[in-house]
Design brief:
aminotransferase; globular; Aspartate Aminotransferase, domain 2; PyrdxlP-dep_Trfase_major; 17 helices; WH_DNA-bd_sf; alpha/beta; seven-stranded mixed beta sheet
Length: 465
């Protein structure tokens, strides 16, 4: 058993962090190993010529990060589980394993960048309109691109009028433009599921909209809670991700969709249907737009079934007049969607490439879901076989922020449920995304490390005083 030669990282912002980072560096370099003993705190203080309180603070921080275990009467030792934190290439290089960003995985065997380049070249060589996408476009999108988008959407919105279809620079921009449009029309209160897309909350704050969360179960928002809110206060619009919800993975059953459409008619509110995951569904379900076309805005982005680098989303307006008005808002906010990316997506729709790549993304999602379910077999887990994320409720007495902080100390980023709360919620959970890490072995390691946090005595809840 080696005894550590005390040192400090001189470039650290404060001395005690310098001691912690020195311990961490020596673990990564295998100078320190699990079970190795640290000198007494007084010896470390004397060696580094710092106050004893500085060393005590450093040891406590190292213990919080899972690097050190302190045994009363025996001293401090390198934790037995420490190497689990650094047994992947990414973590040994000091990079965080990203299980927070909800990216679709890169499909195995498909060079998406090359296929994008091929489509751009193809567009430039087109004999009828070469280089058309190198010029400014109409804000609503070129008619040919809107026609392609209408074709792609026709499976879930049959007999779609192309004039109602607009092209936006991603779903985030589309949602903000729709909310701003509704706000200009007098909307003040927006409802959404209890947990939902964090960007919605930021947009509501920016536009001074009142945001109300609706309680959920495993199938999505509860109808009785929605109707109770409608009776209690005026609701101008309801935002939903009906398929493979982000973050809860819930998919609204058809009967509940019809009931929501009926409530929208009864209480006169608008529906905003954000539907990025439809191409990944195993069983297709009728869209909210098809159930209530006269009061629904539909958003469909390619970022979750192809790549977030392709900033193209389609908006379907309730009618032509709303489409024209929203075009004015889009012109102010971002002028036009990126023409080259739009050209690529149109080409992929025309050739069927969009379906081929989406299916490969779906297969990779399914592979990663199987890994996650095997690792978290003893834990409550909400997921969809084709989703790029999982939703994990925490047992009573534990806080999502505590788990995310402890995961971060292992070099793994996940998202606590607090990031998704629309108004208030007491339920604690975390979202774990499976697609951003390209290496499947590194993903397996990271998920195993997270599962280890749930072992008895590992997941610690902080005392608040």
């Amino acid at each position: 058993m080696a005894i550590w030669q005390a040192r400090m990282v001189e470039t650290s912002r404060v001395k005690y962090i310098g001691i912690v980072e020195a311990i961490e560096e020596d673990i990564k370099r295998r100078i320190l190993k699990p079970g190795d003993r640290l000198p007494s705190q007084r010896l470390i203080a004397n060696e580094l010529m710092v106050d004893l309180t500085t060393v005590t603070r450093a040891i406590n921080e190292a213990a919080r990060r899972g690097l050190v275990e302190t045994q009363r009467g025996s001293g401090s030792f390198i934790a037995q589980t420490t190497f689990n934190q650094y047994n992947s290439l990414q973590l040994t290089q000091g990079k965080t394993l990203d299980l927070s960003m909800n990216n679709p995985p890169i499909p195995v065997g498909i060079n998406i960048e090359q296929k994008i380049a091929d489509s751009i070249i193809k567009s430039g060589n087109a004999s009828h309109q070469p280089n058309r996408h190198l010029f400014y476009q109409e804000t609503a999108g070129h008619p040919d691109d809107r026609a392609a988008g209408s074709e792609w959407l026709s499976e879930k919105i049959p007999q779609l009028d192309q004039d109602k279809v607009l092209i936006s620079s991603g779903a985030h921009s589309a949602l903000f433009s729709i909310l701003n449009h509704l706000h200009q029309q007098g909307a003040t209160h927006i409802a959404a599921p209890e947990f939902s897309y964090p960007g919605l909350r930021a947009m509501a704050d920016q536009l001074s909209l009142v945001l109300t969360g609706i309680d959920m179960d495993e199938d999505g928002i509860k109808l009785d809670c929605l109707e109770n809110k409608c009776r209690e206060q005026s609701i101008d619009a309801l935002y939903l991700i009906p398929n493979i919800d982000n973050p809860t993975t819930a998919t609204l059953p058809l009967a509940r969709r019809q009931a929501i459409a009926d409530l929208a008619e009864k209480y006169n509110f608008i529906l905003i249907e954000d539907d990025p995951y439809y191409p990944l569904l195993e069983q297709k379900i009728t869209s909210l737009y098809s159930l209530a076309p006269e009061r629904c805005w539909h958003i469909a982005t390619v970022s979750k079934c192809l790549s977030p680098s392709m900033r193209v989303a389609y908006i379907v307006a309730p009618d032509l007049q709303h489409a024209l008005r929203l075009t004015d808002d889009l012109r102010i906010s971002h002028l036009m969607a990126p023409p080259l990316m739009t050209a690529v997506v149109s080409d992929w729709i025309d050739t069927g490439m969009i379906d081929s790549v989406s299916q490969e993304v779906k297969k990779e999602n399914q592979r990663r879901q199987r890994i996650a379910k095997d690792i978290f077999v003893d834990h409550t887990l909400f997921s969809d076989d084709s989703a790029s994320h999982i939703w994990m409720p925490l047992r009573k007495g534990f806080r999502a922020l505590d788990l995310s902080e402890q995961a971060n100390s292992l070099g793994i980023s996940i998202v606590p449920s607090t990031a998704f709360v629309m108004s208030t919620s007491q339920r604690q959970a975390v979202r774990i995304s499976l697609g951003a890490e390209p290496d499947i072995n590194t993903l397996h390691t990271g998920l195993s490390m997270l599962a280890d946090l749930f072992q008895p005595g590992k997941l610690r809840s902080k005392s608040i005083v």
